[in-house]
TrEMBL record:
Coiled-coil residue windows: 229-303
Residue intervals of the MATH domain: 6-132
Name assigned to this protein: BnaC01g43160D protein
Keywords, ordered alphabetically: Coiled coil
InterPro entries reported for this sequence: MATH/TRAF_dom, MCC, TRAF-like
Cleaved signal peptide residues: none
Native source organism of the sequence: Brassica napus (Rape)
Organism domain of life: Eukaryota
Pfam families given in the database record: MATH_2 (PF22486)
PROSITE patterns: MATH (PS50144)
Keyword Coiled coil recorded: yes
Coiled coil in keyword set: yes
CDD domains assigned to the protein according to its UniProt record, in alphabetical order: MATH
Length: 333
């Protein structure tokens, strides 16, 4: 059984405020593999925060399908041992590391402004302590493409983890009041949210009226489920406004909408027409093939009947030619 004891790794960063580039710790061992910590003194994705990530060292050297589930926590200390910050409040998170996601961490670990306050940083030195408790080890497994990871309570496919992680990074409170508890229902709602976000990333002029109406209804449904989507509503309102501006004001606006809708309908009908033409051509080809086969079958039947008749007539003629004696009148000796 895998040793599930917690591993605590600590390293010091001297002259912290003089650093701007990525700082990487030495490797340490836990849960059957090597790890290291990346620290971004000026943030990674969030410029006004210290960012820290725990990474699996040399993941390409591990076997196909490898996985590590680990409980993580991060503590920042000054040289006096005073705890400046920790990355969790209600308990450390459990994350899954794998080939697709060999690193997890905290882009907003600590505001730089807080680090600059008097009494926090001493002697321009920061001590980083990472605690890792590996709770599951998979050295090798079959990869099907349907594997999922837990992201803030939602089970999502590996291919969707990046998008979902970005949603929570930009909007940490997006699912705080989410109502459904069923994992299947949660997965469906998360897919709907990702689909709506992708849809609203299109240029405003590419939307037709029905699309915007449908998007607004989807937004209402997601909000009723408990998602906090004020930011998405603002984007939808901006798209609606941009579209109205692009089509002019007053009567010209409705005219522009109608023209765009008709153009879209004509485009869709043309696509359907092309599809039906292909189907029709296939049907005609099949009908011709069936007709040819029927003709050939009729010919074969005729030929077969004629051949059988000729054979029978030949046999009868052969009997007539042969002079068989009448054995019925012979006496038995």
């Amino acid at each position: 059984m895998e040793d599930r004891k917690q591993t605590s790794f600590t390293f010091e960063i001297d002259n912290f405020w003089d650093k701007e580039a990525l700082i990487r710790s030495p490797n340490f061992f836990s849960g059957g593999c090597q790890w290291f910590v990346d620290v971004y003194p000026r943030g990674c994705g969030i410029e006004d925060h210290l960012s820290t990530f725990l990474c699996v060292a040399n993941p390409e050297s591990l076997l196909l399908g490898w996985k590590r589930r680990a409980i993580l926590s991060l503590v920042l200390l000054n040289v006096s041992g005073k705890r400046l910050y920790r990355t969790y409040r209600d308990g450390p998170p459990c994350k899954t590391f794998c080939a697709q996601f060999p690193a997890w961490g905290w882009a907003d670990a600590m505001p730089l402004e807080m680090l600059q306050e008097n009494g926090f940083m001493e002697k321009n030195k920061l001590i980083v302590q990472v605690n890792v408790q590996v709770v599951e080890v998979v050295d090798e497994a079959e990869v099907t493409g349907k594997e999922t990871l837990d992201v803030n309570g939602f089970q999502v496919l590996y291919s969707e983890v990046g998008q979902v992680t970005t949603i929570f990074a930009k909007h940490p409170d997006v699912a705080l009041n989410f109502i459904p508890k069923s994992q299947l229902v949660k997965t469906v709602y998360m897919k709907l949210l990702m689909f709506l976000i992708e849809k609203l990333n299109k240029p405003p002029r590419s939307f037709i009226r029905n699309e915007l109406s449908n998007a607004r209804m989807e937004l209402i449904d997601l909000t009723k489920a408990g998602f906090k989507l004020d930011w998405l509503k603002e984007k939808l309102d901006e798209i609606s406004l941009e579209r109205k501006k692009a089509n002019g004001d007053g009567s010209l606006s409705s005219y522009g909408f109608r023209v765009q809708e008709l153009e879209e309908q004509v485009k869709n009908l043309n696509l359907k027409l092309d599809t039906e033409k292909v189907k029709s051509a296939k049907v005609l080809s099949l009908e011709q093939t069936v007709s040819d086969l029927r003709d050939e079958l009729s010919k074969e039947k005729t030929r077969s009947t004629t051949t059988t008749k000729d054979v029978l007539e030949g046999v009868i003629r052969s009997w007539e030619v042969l002079d068989y004696p009448d054995l019925s009148n012979e006496e038995v000796e």
